[in-house]
Structure formats: C-alpha cells, structure tokens
Amino acid sequence: GEASGEPPGFSLSSRVQPDPSGSETCVCLQVEKHLEPFRLSLEKLQDVSARLRKDMLRGLGKHAHHRAAVKMLPTFVRATPDGTEKGDFLALDLGGTNFRVLHVRVLEEEQRVLKMDSQICAIPQEIMLGTGEKLFDHIAACLAEFLDSQKLRGQTLPLGFTFSFPCEQKEIDKSILIRWTKGFNCSGVEGEDVVRLLKEAIHRRGDYDIGSVAMVNDTVGTMMSCGYRDQSCEIGMIIGTGTNACYMEEMKNVKRVEGEDGRMCINTEWGGFGDDGSLKDILTEFDEEVDKTSINPGVHTFEKMISGMYLGEIVRLVLLKLTEEKLLFKGCPSEALLTPGSFETKFISEIEEPDSGLENAKKILTKLALDWDLVDACVARLVCDTVSSRSARLCAAALATIANRIRTNRGLDHLKTTVGVDGTVYRKHPNFSDELQAAVRLLAPKCDVSFLISEDGSGKGAAMVTAVAQRLALHCMLNFL
C-alpha cells in the first residue's frame, strides 16, 4: 500500500505466476530482499522531511549557513507577479554550450506572457576556454544581432539574465561567479560580478544599451513563469537532469540580508541535502556506488537519489546485482549491462508506460544484448518502478517540508499554494507526478498543493523576474517622492 512504499497494484508476485515447485516464489523473495532498502515507509519519509526542516533553518542562519548542506541562497527576488506587470523585455539564458536570447512581451489585459521571438547562439570551444572578455564580447555581439533582427535596436529594454553556474548573489543585479562548471573555464570571471562584465562588453561596442538587469536562477524562473497565470504560485521546483527548489520566505527569517519586512525568494539548493551524512541511513549500496563513480563524490547526495542524471545508473546497478546473484538473465550479464551509463533514464519511463511498458522492456533488454525471458522483463519493470517511486516520494518529502514551512510561517491552519514545475523526469515519466502528488498529500495534509508545468522558466520566467523588479523599484521611487 501507499505507506509501505509498495506502488498501488504492483507486486512481483502479481507479475510472475509461480510454478508448482515454488522456485519462482523463491526468486520473488530474493528480488524483494534487494529492493526492500528502496521502499521508504511514511514514517521514514516524515523523518526525512523533519531533517530537511532543520537543515533549511541552518542554511537561513546568519553564521550557521557556512556549514549548511542545504545552502538556502537569497535571490533578492522580493515578490511574485501581481498581474499588473507589462511591457517588453529581453532575456538571456546561458547554461551550457549554447545560449538563448529572447524578446518577451507581458500583456496586462490578457494576463499573458508571450515569447515574441528567440535566437540560439553557439559558444565555440575556444571561447569557452578563452578570456572572460571574449566570452562577454561574443554574448554582446549576438544580442546586437538579435536586436537588429527584431527591429529593437533603438529601445533600451530591461533584461533578465539566467546564468546557470554557481554564483553568490549580492543584489538583484549583482552576482559573483564562484566557479565555472559544464566545461567552461574563461579566465578573469571567477570572483567577478557577471552583470558588470556583460554591461562592460555592451558599452565597449557602444552601439546599443540595455535597461536594468535582473539575475535569475533557473528554479526561480520556473516559479515566476507560472506566477503570472496563477498568483498563488510561491514554490518553484525542477526535477530533470538535476533537482532544486525555491520558495517565498519571510524576510525576518533571512538573516543574511538586511531588513525585516516582506518576503524573499530563497533558492534552497536542496540537491546538497545529505552532504553532511544526514541521509546515510537511507542510502542503499547502489546509491553509494553511484556516488563513488560520479564526477563529484560526496556532493549532491539528495540529487543523486532523485534526478534524471542518476536514476538510469541506479537501475543498471540493481539489474547487474540481480544478474550476479543468478536471479536475472540466467546469470549472464551482457557487455552493455556491465558498462556504466548504458541504461538511460528515459528507458525507465518507457518501461513503465502503462500500455506498452512490457513490450518496451523486451525491446530495451534486447538492445542491451541480454538473454531475457518474460519473468526477466517483469522484474526489470519492477526495478524501474521501485527506483522511480522512491525518487518521487523523496521529492515529495522535500516539497512537503517547504509547503509546511510556508504554512507555519504565516500562522495558517490551512495553506493553498501552487508549485511551478519543470524538468524531464516530472514531464516525461508516466507515474512520477501522480506518485509525487499522492505522497505530498500524505506528508503535508494541511496544505492544498497544486502543480503547474512551467513554460520556459529561463526565458519567460527571467523576463517576469525583471518585470516584478521593475514594478517594485517604481513603487519604491514613488513612495520616496
């Protein structure tokens, strides 16, 4: 049942007809023994939720945050949309080997955010490894080209900048790069303010200008892109290659930033939950192996149990173990099964499809050159279901912590809130969102949590952050006058 972690209506014995000798029943029991550590009871999930609550408090603390596994970074986004935002905005999205430039229009009457147009620009290898000046000159040149193509050159438009690298944000328009990741290594950027570097590159050209700049984390963009359609959207969550969440916290609890009034969006960086060893008791031998062989051992413990980058590898390791124990594939692993990364996370979604799952499982096992029978295909399906189910339930435990925190922060008996969500695991997996929502209902019973799939958080969401920042700045100026 729900509380035991057993997915509804799915058990190995219901998939496998035991033969009279009982040998297959024995196989069932041995398979279950290996899957048992993945099945987290409701009590255990409540316990995980309580641990995250403590870690969030530590991350918000003025002095404790240095030691915190959950970083709780202030984003300087001080409000969600109120529906009065309007106008034209630019968005810049840099997070990998390509970057996007967008023109976004916010229509107040229709309460809509429209992507007018966008352009993708490649970043050649020599620029990724060259000087910071060359990188920002390249970005400024692509932006100029885009403004020309949109006939926007004469206008000075505000810009939302999604920069998906580890940064320390000092203000809405000031963000210091801590270190490069994802194959970038431009000199002279680490320790510098990326907004200043962008503006300097634009000024070096001297042929156009931009208005105010707002730095945007992709998770915050996810929340904000939903916030115009649904003004109760105060949580953002990504479950894709990686995982993260943000939410609106009371300013008085954000000890690292001056001021007691209002709210601020906090980027939790919850992927690091457990990096201090607090989740050791729920890690399986397979999680430990995934961590050991990853490019960042000991880091992003929670993310490695949940996100798309790792789920396929966890399944591969379980299938390999069952094969070594002679419970699968006649005890013969193929070359592919022995190769790290060969079991893609998308295979999990395909194998769990309600109608075509078993057929897909057969095709995938054949593709991996395994000698399978029907029982093997059913067991592979059960392994996928168990691993993805744990991911959804752990994610639910973390989300419930945030919903419960917002509720108690506001002294409410009952909270109605919306989560803006993005990421391939949430979007593509057939049962993930249902399992997540069912577990959130159990773990945050006094919260009514709705889910909205984000539309282009790093584009439209970034523009919306800029629009809200502009509204607040104007409000502040009028009050001052």
From TrEMBL:
GO terms for cellular component: cytosol; mitochondrion. Residues 11-23 have a biased composition (Polar residues). Coiled coil: none annotated. This is Phosphotransferase. Residues 234-468 form the Hexokinase C-terminal domain. InterPro entries: ATPase_NBD, Hexokinase, Hexokinase_BS, Hexokinase_C, Hexokinase_N. Residues 31-228 form the Hexokinase N-terminal domain. It is an enzyme of class 2 (transferase). It comes from Oryzias melastigma. It catalyses: D-glucose + ATP = D-glucose 6-phosphate + ADP + H(+); a D-hexose + ATP = a D-hexose 6-phosphate + ADP + H(+). Its EC number is 2.7.1.-. PANTHER family: HEXOKINASE, PHOSPHOTRANSFERASE. Pathway: Carbohydrate degradation; glycolysis; D-glyceraldehyde 3-phosphate and glycerone phosphate from D-glucose: step 1/4; Carbohydrate metabolism; hexose metabolism. Belongs to the hexokinase family. The keyword rRNA processing does not apply. Keywords: ATP-binding, Glycolysis, Kinase, Nucleotide-binding, Transferase. One of its GO terms (biological process) is glucose metabolic process. Pfam families: Hexokinase_1, Hexokinase_2. GO terms for molecular function: ATP binding; D-glucose binding; fructokinase activity; glucokinase activity. Residues 1-23 are annotated as: Disordered. PROSITE patterns: HEXOKINASE_1, HEXOKINASE_2.
